[in-house]
Amino acid sequence: MAYREGEERQMIDGQEVIVIRSAKRKRTISADLVGGTLRLRVPLRLGKGQLEEHARAFQQKLRKKASGSGRSDEDLMRRALELSATYFDDAVRPVSVRWSDRQNSRWGSTTSSQGTIRLSSRLKQMPGWVQDGVLVHELAHLIESGHGPAFRRLVERYPRTKEADAFLEGVSFAQRQQGNS
């Protein structure tokens, strides 16, 4: 199905891939991620087999990059402080921010009394803006413990909050469906 001229969406190994064909391209193929979806720019006459081969190669490369270049605990703390400065006027200063391999049902958690934040290691594979959304959520808990209106106002200072929440809900839904099959 075409979404704009030269653009089509295909399922390759169970994952949607955006394919943009161009008559100007003769040999080169490039790839990037758009909202977590692989987008390939390919020559107009690239065959289906070659397209699938390139899509798999780029998906593998992106997976390897995501798993190997995830933020360290120090990077996570640095990012939390940047987000605090941007969205909370530096009013929030966590004592520690770290990844947790033990969080399988939550994306993040905060112990307000100790000023500590933990993010699920599952987030390492997700886009940075989704990780930022969870960090802002947890930072807001250092100000407001519940999920009431005051808390929501704090969290909504991050402009991609609704988008990050929807992304995570989609991931959670997919995981529940896999668990039921």
UniProtKB/TrEMBL annotation:
Keyword Transport recorded: no
An example Gene Ontology molecular-function term: hydrolase activity
InterPro entries: UTP_pyrophosphatase-like, YgjP-like_metallopeptidase
Keywords in alphabetical order: Hydrolase
The UniProt record lists the keyword Hydrolase: yes
Alphabetized Pfam families for the sequence: YgjP-like
Domain of life of the organism encoding this protein: Bacteria
Domain spans labelled YgjP-like metallopeptidase: 81-168
Protein name: Metal-dependent hydrolase
